[in-house]
Every structure is written in structure tokens, then in C-alpha cells.
Amino acid sequence: MRLGLTVLLFGLASACATAPTRTHFHTDAKAEVPGTLGMLGVAYLIDLEKDDWNDMRSCLGEKRAPTDEERVAFEALEEDGDVCDHTTILPIDRWVSGMNWEPARPISDVGLMAMLGMPFAFAAVDALANQESAERFGVDALVASESIAATLLAGTILKVAARRPRPLTYNDTFGKSARFAGDARLSFPSNHSSVAFAAASVTSVMVLERYGLSTGSAAAVTGAYLGAATIGTLRMLGGKHFLTDVLVGAAIGTFFGLMVPIVHLESAPALLDEDVAVSSPGRDRVYVPVVSLGGGW
Questions:
Q1: Which residue has the higher pLDDT, 190 or 181?
Q2: How far apart are CA 248 and CA 250, in angstroms?
Q3: 285 pLDDT exceeds 60?
Q4: Which candidate in 98, 179, 246, 249 could, as Cys together with 189 as Cys, close a disulfide (CB 3.0–4.6 Å)?
Q5: CA angle (51, 189, 288) in 5-degree steps
Q6: CA 290 to chain centre
Q7: Per-residue pLDDT averaged across 228-246, rounded?
Q8: Looking at the domain assignment, is residue 45 inside a domain?
């Protein structure tokens, strides 16, 4: 985590010291702000369903709330009793079922907050360094928020559909309150990983589109993805996610973190409108590593 943040900060400082190409985003705030809030709201409402599964063995795979008899059985259960059978886990994931490094869980939570703030921090520093308006920062913030919201909604839908038991349900070093919580059956995919990779990806698009490919921008992108990869690794070490959960989460986050900002990039000067917050692209406009699809989301 510390290495990734160090590389990221060095890269951002180096990139901002170079001459910017100033390619920006085009958005329709009236449509996209409600859409972004709607995605976040739906993800939250779907996530609430897990509370109905408290006190039920997650490894049974039942898609229902526990009965009164099952709740009584839960109360009588020993703390280290009734764990899931680890031999049923995919071989590539099986090693994670023995992981229980407690500090990894709070560290990953703090790290995720740092990753979430990264695209917004870059947008603010970039706007200040180039004397751009608060409106320009708002456009960047909206694109970043939309990327993260889409990622979170997709991951939450998959979690509830898959209902995969977490690694900790196979590990008797975790107490029964953790192994029988409704959240214990929401392993696939890792939302920590997906959101971290979404934040890293949207930041990378901003850096590369505005400053081109240089040593500084390459270091910034590398640091961003190192930070996201560290989050995924910590989730495995803490017994919260399998390797496949992290890999799929990373793929989801990278997809939305690249696609959403790319389709918001200015495609031509014809996009300019006095009622829309956009600015003219510079003469040295660079498309790295992807090509702009233009338009709004």
C-alpha cells in the first residue's frame, strides 16, 4: 500500500510538472447526476437483503431466511463448530480458506477510502494547477462518481446472484458470528477490489489523456494500480475473498473505470456548447492508451 501511494504521488507530481494536453470530459449533469445517485441507491437496497440471512450457514447455499429452528441451533452452536468443507473449494482458491490476518481487514478498508479519493484529489489538483474553474472539477468528479457507482452496482448484483460463501466460512478460527452473518455469503466478486480498480482506472485515463505518456504519468498509473492490487491482496489475507473473487472484481472495476471516462471524452470541437461545461481540446491531444468514443454516457 505504501509503495503504491508513494509511486502514485511521485508520478502525479512529475506529470503535473509537464505541459498538459488538456483533453477533458463532456457531461450532461441533469441526466447523469440522478442516474449516478440511482445506481448507488439500487446497490444499497440490494445489499440490504443480506440481513435476512443472518444466523444461517452460508455454505448450504440456501436462498432464503433461516427458520426459527435454525436460529435456535445457531445459538447453541460452539464458536468453532460447523464450518464449511474446504475440499469443495476450487483448487486455485483453496489456500485462501486458511487466511485470517486480522489487521488486513481494517487496512483494506482504510486503503479503499484512499483509493476512492484518488480521482477526486487528482481532479482538484489538476484544476488548481491549470487555473481551471470549479465547474471543470465538478465534471471530473461526476465522471469518477459514475464509474464507481456503475462498478458498485454491477458487483452487488453479482454478489446477490452468486451467494458464494466467503473463505472465512471454511475457517474455524473465525467465530460463529462472522461465519453465520448474512454478509458471509457475499464473496463473489470482491467489491473492494472492483471499486479500487475503477478508481485507479478513471484516474489513469485522466492522467494519460491530459499529460500524455511520460515517465511521470507512467509512474502515476503504475502507483494507482499497485494500490488497487494491494487492496485485493489484503482482502485475501484477511479471509474475506478468494483469488477468483479479486480477479473478477478487478476486471469489473477496470472495465467501468476505463469505459465510463472514455465515452465522456470530447470527440470534436463540435461538442462545444455554451450551456455545457466543456473546454476546447489542446492541439497536442493524445489518446493513450485508448481511443475516445466521445459524447456522453
A1: 190
A2: 5
A3: no
A4: 249
A5: 135
A6: 20
A7: 98
A8: no
The total domain count for the chain is 1
The CB density around residue 67, as the number of other CB atoms within 10 Å, is 12
CA dihedral sign, ordered 51, 248, 190, 55: positive
What's the CA gap between 47 and 30, in Å, rounded?
27
Q: Which residues pair with 265 in a beta bridge?
A: 25
| 79-95 pLDDT, tens digit each | 888 898 889 899 999 99
The pLDDT score that the predictor gives to residue 213 is: 86
User: Which residues share a beta bridge with 25?
Assistant: 265
pLDDT (average), residues 267-282: 40
Which three three-digit cell numbers place residue 18?
A: 509537464
**DSSP class per residue in the chain:** -HHHHHHHHHHHHHHHTSPP----B---HHHHHHHHHHHHHHHHHHHGGGGGGTTS-GGG---SPPPHHHHHHHHHS-TT-S---GGGS-TTTGGGGG---TTHHHHHHHHHHHHHHHHHHHHHHHHHHTT--HHHHHHHHHHHHHHHHHHHHHHHHHHHHH-PPPGGGG-TTS-HHHHTSGGGG--SS-HHHHHHHHHHHHHHHHHHHHH-S-HHHHHHHHHHHHHHHHHHHHHHHTTS--HHHHHHHHHHHHHHHHHHHHHTB---GGG--TTS---PPPTT----SS----S--
Question: Quick check: is 242 in a domain?
Answer: yes
List the one residue out of 83, 95, 276 whose CA is nearest residue 180.
83
Cell numbers at 243, concatenated: 483469488
Q: Is residue 250, in this structure, part of any structural domain at all?
A: yes
- Please indicate, yes or no, if residue 43 is contained in any of the structural domains: no
pLDDT band, very low/low/confident/very high, at 55 (cuts 50, 70, 90): confident
167 closest CA partner among 77, 65, 243, 61: 243
125: containing domain: 2-27+96-269
